[in-house]
Amino acid sequence: AGGWELKRYPLLQMATAVREALDVSPRPAIFLWGPGEEGMAQELVQLTGKGALMAPPTDFQRMGALLKRSAALLTNDNATKHLGVACGCPTVTIFGPTSDVAWHPPQDPDHLSVKLNLECMPCEALSCHLGTHACLKELQPVYVADAVLTLLERGA
Description:
Elements: H1 11-22, E1 29-31, H2 38-48, E2 52-54, H3 60-68, E3 73-76, H4 79-87, E4 91-94, E5 111-114, H5 134-137, H6 141-153
Parallel strand pairs: 1-2, 3-4, 4-5
Helix pairs in contact: 1-2, 1-6, 3-4
């Protein structure tokens, strides 16, 4: 999830994207979570349904170990994404108010970013100046799922 609420892809949309990827890929989806995020992870497991699992409580080192063994990480722009990159885990990062140019490995086929191209992006703001949060609410789950499947099809 990350500490900055405006950077969080809505839970229902995240679950829909994961479910769409699970419809194609036989791999399970394991939801990682940090302090204060257990409830969100449980909700994602419930919303996603079959093939969704919740990771056990982990510290930063154990989360890194899980990421090293993962085929791909779907995430918001947060610390887990950066840990995944550092551990060599292929990543799909959903960007809303933050810049994928500033906060993402440049032109690396193992690290994909998914975002809309709205005039207001990237704003780097803590709250939406337009009051719509369109940068994430209008991002369709199918595009997110397609990016994950692209990494998995590459044999990541």
